[in-house]
Amino acid sequence: MAESDFGVNVSAARPGEVSVTIEVAYRPPTDHVPKGWTLEASGTFVAATLLRVETPDGIVHDEFPDFAQIILPSEMTYRMFRKFRDDTGLEQHLFELTPAMILDAQGRPARFETIQRAQPDPDAVTRWEVACPTSTPGTSVMVNGSGADRAEALRAVVDNGLNLLHSETPDAGPRSPIFVALGGEFAWVRGFGDPELSTSDLAQVVLDGIEGERRSAVERAAAFSTRSSRPPVKYSTQSSSVTQQWNRIVAWLENTIPNYVVTGADETRIADAQRRTGVEWPSELIELFRCVDGLPREPWMVLFPKYELFGLDAMLEDRAMMTDIWQTGDAENDPDRVISTTAGEAAWTFLDEFIPIAGMDGYFLFVDTRPGELNGCVTVFDKVNSDDAGPQWLSISALLDDLATSLETGTPFDGGWRHAIVDGRLEWGI
Predict the structure, then answer these.
(1) Mind listing the pLDDT tens digit for each residue in 54-76?
(2) What is the per-residue pLDDT across 74-106, written as a single tens digit (0 to 9) for each?
(3) Contact 397, 241 (CB under 8 A)
(4) Which of 202, 268, 328, 400 is 20 to 30 A distant from 17 in Cα terms?
């Protein structure tokens, strides 16, 4: 972290995505360091204009609405913390900003003459930066400057990178990382510790690293866009095999409830049921009914905490009832409403594409057969808020995986439900 003419510059400690959190704290500053975080820097500055977060490529991020609450001018006391997620390796930055109003002699906000800095001509100079870890764990050193053009800036990066590495970590091997930046682009590169590489070779290493980071940034942006556009799923269990997960459940039932026999539907019954729904079924839905066509009536019990598992007949009957009730009401009350045709998005009604696989008293688990990335997801439907709760599991196999794990290990299922065997039957409680 370093101060520059343009504000406070913060660089990532290693390659990868960085998460930034900013807390505007209206309380006296303290020396407390949050558990698991490392204090990287602290200081003060005067905020005379609205604060903003800007990346080296000139993009201003407006995800921090608390900046607008700061009364200007204010003296800002800042502390910057850093930590790394053990599970994902994500680098996290936390900025704590404590504002103190600057008042004039009359007790009014002081007036500041803000200086408009001349912005450098990007065609005239190229800013550069080099940083490398030191021999002290968790610390690094950085130098920066500008060159008359990109070629001069590149030469400065190579020269300063070599000097930094040799002075700060003289025993570094050929794979020791160096952070480099040219203009608004940056990368972590390796090779500065390799004595066989010439300065020309290292210049190419820098350019290749920046080009690689550029491609990675595009891929990350595309991945983030995909994640942002996809409706969230409550449980993160991944899809696998319906048959595999159902066999785990059957094995548990056989060991726990004597003489409890579960059978599936034949291909003719499944094909007829699918034809009667008038929609195309995901393969996992077909596979489910091959495994189980409803549970035995004796002993009667619910496989899920709040829902009775349906066979084909019960599914068709309840689906016909729900589509009739909800779609008739829609036609009468809001005939012009536009309903989403993408799986996982709330429809606020019971669509033909919803296939209930379990239910009780007007509440259902249904499979969403609409097209889209979440085709086949399992969603909750209730008689008050319809499908507002959104997708719960990515697929039937993910649902069954969670259920099987809960039955086998006793861990909570679906938000805290635990099972017990009472009088020879499965029961659930919170």
Answers:
(1) 776 567 777 677 787 787 788 88
(2) 888 888 888 876 665 678 888 888 888 787 666
(3) yes
(4) 202
Provide the 10 A C-beta neighbour count for residue 17: 14
Residues 6+ apart with CB under 8 A from 413: 305, 402, 403, 406, 419, 428
CA distances, 317 to each of 24, 274, 275, 277, 357 (Å): 56, 13, 14, 11, 11
| Mean pLDDT computed over 199-224 | 76
419: number of CA atoms within 13 Å, CB side?
A: 25
Find where tokens 């990515």 sit: 394
User: What gap in Å lies between CA 209 and CA 7, rounded to an integer?
Assistant: 26
CB distance 153 to 181 below 8 Å:
no
DSSP conformation letters of 287-323: HHHHH-SS--SSS---SSSS-EEP-HHHHHHHHHHHH
Residues near 294 by beta carbon (within 8 Å), at least 6 away in sequence:
309, 310, 311, 312, 313, 314
Q: How far is CA 286 from the centre of its chain?
A: 31
Q: Please tell me the predicted confidence (pLDDT) of residue 230.
A: 47
Which among 138, 134, 183, 192 has a CA at the least distance from the CA of 161? 192
